Automatic annotation (TrEMBL):
PANTHER family: GLYCINE--TRNA LIGASE, GLYCYL-TRNA SYNTHETASE/DNA POLYMERASE SUBUNIT GAMMA-2. Residues 5-474 form the Aminoacyl-transfer RNA synthetases class-II family profile domain. Its main location: cytoplasm. Pfam families: HGTP_anticodon (PF03129), tRNA-synt_2b (PF00587). The gene is glyQS. CDD domains: GlyRS-like_core (cd00774), GlyRS_anticodon (cd00858). This is glycine--tRNA ligase.
């Protein structure tokens, strides 16, 4: 299928079969917002649960659910008010706004235009002779401005508190760290997960659910002591990955690096072992849920791409319709977030780490004479005392002089050294307070759903008739099983079909019951929404020597096999979990000709 055709076919299928469609269409719609239909909502929910099972349950991590609206000081501390921008260029003729880096990338060989400054982007637009996609007017000479992506709101009536819809779920975890650390018994390392909505006022939403203004993230914030906590790579060291490091992106003729997680960390391609660990876990998880690994890579961020909080970042990217799209990011956020909230917030964002053995250390301390500082500095006295304590920690030698110079709220103040009562004391310490570093795997659920649909979309021919189907993994398919009585006017067949459907639902399977139309048409309907298995109840299966039997049909191959009703649940459990293959079922049971 050619580029462009894949996206168009997928969008048409998604709307017709109830995966996703534009919201509020009765009122003209609004860009960047989508509604998931019955099939899409089920698929998305299954992806979320699969992520939760792997990254929360199996990793032994905590999970929280924080509000989607937070007060303005949170985002002042996090840096989002000042640094969460995209580049906007506005057409002077029609007034439409466009994302400058996207225009450049769509009309040139440049793949990382977001690393440009606004001034460089404006020059590039002029050099390329770009025009407004809406009206065709020349964009040369138009200024490129930074546009903050957060949605602003007010909390409460009257003189309300300014607030913002969160642009990432992470801040809900960081803000609540002082309480969450207690639930983790103040014992590092530990992880906290959250699956929820985030909001970004995108300049130019596009490619359906790939770039929207409301979306779902699944994020893990893994808190570590960088001096003591080492990643154990034994579980992932042999996982094979396709990497696109920054050095290869910047080199002439740069290429991918095919390697293993263990080798990539050892060779320094992945500079942080914790990032390597989560890349390995993600590689295996994406394969399990059905991403085509021939269309998947990890790409390292260039220096200009990294977010303000990130010292290193790798994106998981999937190829869809000829383009690479980011579906997850793996960032080493160091202690940026907790340090900032510790500075701005009124709580303790550190963890006490006990030493293996108590340590005897010398500490520089001051005991300021407030009887002197009070009359001399008045309301500033407490700030002067605090500045003396800070100076003693940072530069104890400063107290060797007769006077010490302090910076108090930008004002230079001189204090007699003897007023500080400076001394060096020997202290025994059981541990220390540290600000944990953070390793963050952040997954875009909507983009993962889109990738799964795009990679699963297949066409072939069955009995001389064209067929389109979704080869979705049984672990995430919105419907697990279709149950079809061959005819609907034979009571015994209908009763058995009802019993089978009821038993499968009781076992936790999502079941669709369909007795309308030819059996071929019923198969096609389920193929198109990705139902992996269909059960047909016919006369041949009624009360045989070994009891009732049914036929089970596998979606991708169209092959069918007859097996006892009593074996049906156990067989489907194994197929859904991946512990058994349909070839195993074919080998053990009577094959039925289609």
């Amino acid at each position: 299928m050619s580029e462009g055709d894949e996206s168009a076919a997928l969008t048409e299928l998604a709307k017709r079969r109830g995966f996703f469609f534009g919201s509020s269409e009765a009122y003209g719609g609004v860009g960047g917002f989508y509604t998931y239909g019955p099939q899409g909502a089920a698929l998305k929910s299954n992806v979320e649960e699969a992520w939760r099972e792997r990254f929360a349950v199996q990793e032994g991590n905590l999970e929280i659910e924080a509000p989607t609206i937070m007060p303005e000081p949170v985002f002042e501390a996090s840096g989002h008010l000042d640094g969460f921008d995209d580049m906007l260029v506005e057409c002077a003729e029609c007034g439409e706004s466009h994302r400058a880096d996207h225009l450049i990338e769509d009309n040139s060989e440049l793949e990382d235009a977001e690393t440009l400054s606004p001034e460089e982007a404006a020059e590039k637009i002029a050099d390329l002779g770009l025009v407004c996609p809406t009206c065709g007017a020349d964009l040369a000479g138009q200024s490129v401005e930074d546009f903050n992506l957060m949605f602003e709101t007010n909390i409460g009536p009257g003189s309300s508190t300014p607030g913002y819809l969160r642009p990432e779920t992470a801040q809900g975890i960081f803000v609540e760290f002082p309480r969450i650390k207690e639930y983790a018994r103040n014992s590092l390392p530990f992880g906290v997960t959250q699956v929820g909505r985030a909001y970004r006022n995108e300049i130019s939403p596009r490619k359906s659910i790939v770039r929207t203004r409301e979306f779902t993230q699944a994020e893990l914030e893994h808190f570590i002591d960088p001096e003591r906590d080492e990643a154990d790579l034994s579980a992932v060291e042999d996982v094979e990955v396709l990497l696109y490091p920054a050095t290869e992106q910047e080199a002439d003729g740069g290429d991918y690096v095919e390697t293993t997680i263990g080798e990539a960390v050892e060779d320094g391609i992945i500079g942080n072992a914790w990032l390597g660990y989560f890349l390995g876990i993600a590689q295996e998880w994406y394969e399990t849920v059905g991403v085509d690994m021939d269309r998947f890579r990890f790409r390292q961020h260039l220096a200009g791409e990294r977010a303000h909080y990130s010292s290193d970042c790798w994106d998981a990217e999937s190829e869809v319709d000829g383009d690479w799209i980011e579906i997850a990011g793996f960032s080493y956020r160091s202690d940026y977030d907790l340090s900032k909230h510790g500075e701005y917030g009124d709580d303790d964002f550190t963890v006490f780490q006990q030493y293996d053995e108590p340590k005897t250390v010398e500490r520089a301390v001051v005991d300021p004479d407030m009887a002197t500082l009070g009359p001399e500095f008045g309301a500033q006295a407490a700030d002067v005392a605090e500045a003396l304590e800070t100076l003693a920690e940072r530069d104890p030698d400063a107290f060797d002089a007769d006077e010490v110079t302090l910076d108090v709220d930008g004002e230079e103040i001189t204090v007699d050294a003897d007023v500080a009562n400076f001394s060096v004391e020997t202290q025994t310490e059981a541990g220390e307070h540290i600000t944990p570093h953070v390793v963050e795997p952040s997954f875009g659920i909507d983009r993962t759903v889109y990738t799964l649909l795009a990679h699963a979309y297949e066409t072939d021919e069955v009995d001389g008739e064209a067929r389109s189907y979704l080869s979705l993994s049984p672990s995430v398919a919105p419907t697990n099983v279709g149950v079809f009585p061959l005819v609907s006017n034979v009571d015994e067949l209908v009763d058995l079909a009802d019993d089978v459907a009821e038993e499968l639902r009781a076992a936790g399977f999502a079941v669709v019951y369909d007795d309308s139309g030819s059996i071929g048409r019923r198969y096609r309907r389920q193929d198109e929404v990705g139902t992996p298995f269909c059960i047909t109840i016919d006369r041949d299966g009624l009360e045989g020597d070994g009891g009732d039997t049914v036929t089970i049909r596998e979606r991708d191959s169209g092959k069918q096999v007859r097996l006892p009703v009593d074996d049906l649940v156990g067989t489907l459990v194994g197929l859904r979990a991946g512990t058994a293959s349909f070839d195993d079922v074919l080998d053990e049971n009577e094959v039925v000709e289609a």
